[in-house]
């Protein structure tokens, strides 16, 4: 039997930093808000590499008027997890974790939201407004090659320990790929990188770039540029050079396909949001963040489509206040 909860002012989908910012700002504006998250609190950060250090300073990650203190120049993943947990505790936010939103349907003046928790139990909610803040980290850019679904292949890198004394192939050449390559190499893995570009440069942070370049130059990490992986087997991977069209096969035990991520366009479309077929940008008002569906908003990186380098926690955290003020204003006018 489904449980029906009627008339929340706002339901927020996604409990990452931007979703939490939305929840905080809605509460400040006197709105009755519920946040629903299919995984754990700040699920994307939880699945970042265990030794990850944020690229930015702690003050640029702050939300809810709560200082983010750290003894380091840049905070660690663990510090980030603890900080955002404190935000929830301090503001007493209403959050349902491990509950997946199945559908969002506009019915006259309100939305019907159906969810399912980790035990398979279904719930039905009603709200006047909905904010989608689901990010993009759950949807990797797939290679569409034979062997990609083998258990040895992963689109997420977490920890170097299991890969000591193993042959590891990394596909990609941006920050996440370079960080994984360096960490795995230093832990004792034999690392090979394959990058489809002519050089490793694009968007790699300035303190990472010389490190990876020097490791390649000294032969500690093998790098194949202008190349793509065409096939993966249980023990090997085939690589093709895009210039010469020559192929070679290399031995490997594990593969990390760190080729980036994209928003869940299918979910957006299921909510009747118009999505650009090329950029995957949902149609929305840049000032109010309201989509083509009245009362349905997008917040954070999902509003940028595949341009995931345009919106981060640092600027997405301000979306909550913009949306909350807009909703509070609309609600006030309706009451009058």
Can you offer a commentary on this structure?
- Helix 1 runs parallel beside helix 3.
- Helices cover 24% and strands 25% of the residues.
- The protein has helices at residues 17-28, 43-46, 77-91, 175-187, 209-217, 265-270, 313-316, 319-335; strands at residues 3-13, 33-36, 95-96, 99-107, 110-117, 122-132, 153-154, 167-171, 190-194, 222-224, 227-232, 236-241, 247-251, 254-257, 296-298.
- It folds into 2 domains: 3-139 and 261-335, FAD/NAD(P)-binding domain; 153-257, FAD/NAD(P)-binding domain (3-Layer(bba) Sandwich), CATH 3.50.50.
- It has 336 residues and is of the alpha/beta class.
- The strands form 3 sheets. Strands 1, 2, 3, 4, 5, 6 and 15 form a 7-stranded mixed β-sheet that branches.
- It contains 8 helices and 15 strands.
- The protein starts with a strand and ends with a helix.
Offer a quick outline of the entry:
This protein has 336 residues and is α/β, with parallel strands linked by helices. Helix content is 24%, strand content 25%.
Q: What number of domains?
A: 2
* Amount of helix: 10-25%
What portion of residues belong to β-strands? 25-35%
CATH topology of the largest domain: FAD/NAD(P)-binding domain
Q: What is the count of β-strands?
A: 15
Q: Tell me about the biggest sheet?
A: 7 strands, mixed
The rounded distance between the terminal residues' Cα atoms is 37 Å
Oligomer: single chain
Query: What CATH first level of the largest domain would be assigned?
Result: Alpha Beta
Q: What name goes with the CATH superfamily of the largest domain? A: FAD/NAD(P)-binding domain
